[in-house]
Amino acid sequence: MKFINAKDLPLKEDPEIEDASEDVTPSSKKRAQKERAGKVPPSAQTTALRMISMRDYSSRILREKLSEKGFSQEEIEETLEFLREKRFLDDLRYGRNLIRYMAERRYFGAYKIRMELYQKLDRIFIDRLLPDELENYDFAALAKELISKPQLRGKSREALIRKLKANGYGVSEIRYALAAISQSEE
Predict the structure, then answer these.
(1) pTM of the entire structure?
(2) Cβ distance 90 to 98 under 8 Å?
(3) Taking a C-beta distance cutoff of 8 angstroms, is the pair 152, 163 a contact?
(4) How far apart are CA 109 and CA 13, in angstroms?
(5) Using one digit for the tens of pLDDT, what is the confidence trace for 2-50?
(6) C-alpha distances in angstroms, 17 versus 2, 3, 12, 13, 26?
């Protein structure tokens, strides 16, 4: 097997080197352009169905995404109404799932959950969801569970307090979690 050195390769200006763009015929270029031009852009309804088939969205977020894609407000509202009628889009379901995820998987406290919901849902749904859904969680126990995670072991008391505050826990929940950790270390 013979190896080629870079210095043995011809220079780009060498007339013996063929231009690769000549291999593409003008007719194939035109055909590709016609195919791209002939495609009908998807409707807002098709786009929304494709999006919600991958993951759940709230009406607010889906409205923003469709607006970013350039659909008219009228078309977006018709699409959202269609999705609600077919029960593909349900803000209360989305909110419940989001609260469950944030509390059970991310270990967020009530304050952080509330702030996250304000970014993703309309206020009407938040007011209906929060009182009932937050009662299902013992945030003091979640705070205790969070700081007992292996990645937080050995951290200073101040670091644990900062972590719990950043995750949206209140003072009483932080005190409970730190007292439980102090008792288990003794």
Answers:
(1) 0.73
(2) no
(3) yes
(4) 66
(5) 666 666 655 555 455 455 555 544 544 554 554 556 677 889 999 999 9
(6) 21, 20, 7, 8, 21
